[in-house]
Amino acid sequence: MTSLVHELQSDALNEEGVSILSLLRKARVVSIKLGVTTIDQWLEHELSGYPTRGSIPEYRHIVGSPVCRNPYTGWMPLEVRGAQAQKMLSERHLHQPMGELCQFADKDAGQSILFMYPAKIAEQIMNGIDGRFEPALEVGVTVIHGIIATVRNKILDFALELERQGILGEGMTFTPTEKTAASNISYSINIENMSGSQLQQGTTASTQTYTHSADFSGISAFVEKLLPALGQLSNSTDRDQLQSDLETIRSLLKAPTPKIGMIRECLNSVKTVLEGAAGNIAAEYLPLLPALLASLPS
Question: Tens of pLDDT along 113-160?
């Protein structure tokens, strides 16, 4: 008869064929039958969600990018002043049940998750933004994949430790000797204390998903409009640098699959030059760059 612990190990390794939810449920069956309460509570929280901030494991501590919604250009980076404010607005501990995280993970690689800030924090942020743009925390889908992979690895470690202790099970049962051996296992999940955090955890309705769609047409229009205006620059070094960056972007945009990283690098170079330039050219073109850069997937 098949060993339940060996089945758990096999399922943990079968990332494509066994879902993380099925793996969690089987691991919980094993933990309950063996009476391993130290891991059973963690498994229950992964399946049902974490009830308090202090109970959330460290691996669910994520870091994202604060953004805000411009009603005309869409989501764009949110500039945050001060290291403490940047840290507070960039971090989040995810309490959601694994089923909800799996829904996020099903999104395409080019998509991001938007975690909305609590109403009080959002109001404070909007009070400091001209136009009161709605703020959110942008997190890549790959971050969610990382959390799921960590949970799978922890279950595999649990199953391997059971075997190391000589606990295998037969079918759906374990012997009294195996249960006694299991009672000596202390399996703890690293929990980071969140009692001092000012950010409450969001609700199920506090997330959105969106797809980055690079604004290649807007970038092209920007390039074609700025190139003829370079004569307004009196500094020849700045003029030559801008011309080189803009012509590079123009060339990259002609490719069937434009290299986004190189386009972003050139646009940032253009931004740096314009920030140091004087006159109407900076005032006219510099405000257009944040939205164009924000449209490029990271």
Answer: 888 888 888 888 888 776 678 889 998 888 899 999 999 999 999 999
Start-to-end CA distance of the chain, whole Å, equals 50
Partnered with residue 239 across adjacent β-strands are none
Contacts of 190 (CB under 8 A, 6+ apart): 57, 58, 59
Note the pLDDT of residue 17: 93
Coil, helix or strand at residue 105: helix
Q: Do the beta carbons of residue 162 and residue 30 sit within 8 Å? A: yes
Contact in structure between 260 and 214 (CB atoms under 8 Å): yes
Question: What's the rounded Cα separation, in Å, for the pair 7 and 18?
Answer: 11
**Distance between CA atoms of residues 114 and 282, nearest Å:** 32
**How far is residue 77 from each of residues 147, 274, 296, measured CA to CA in Å?**
25, 19, 11
DSSP 109-175: TTEEEEEEPPHHHHHHHHHTSTT-PEEEEEEEHHHHHHHHHHHHHHHHHHHHHHHHTT---BTTB--
Q: Which residues of 18-53 are buried (b: 16+ CB within 10 A; e: fewer)?
A: bbbbebbebbbebbebbebeebbebbebbeebbeeb
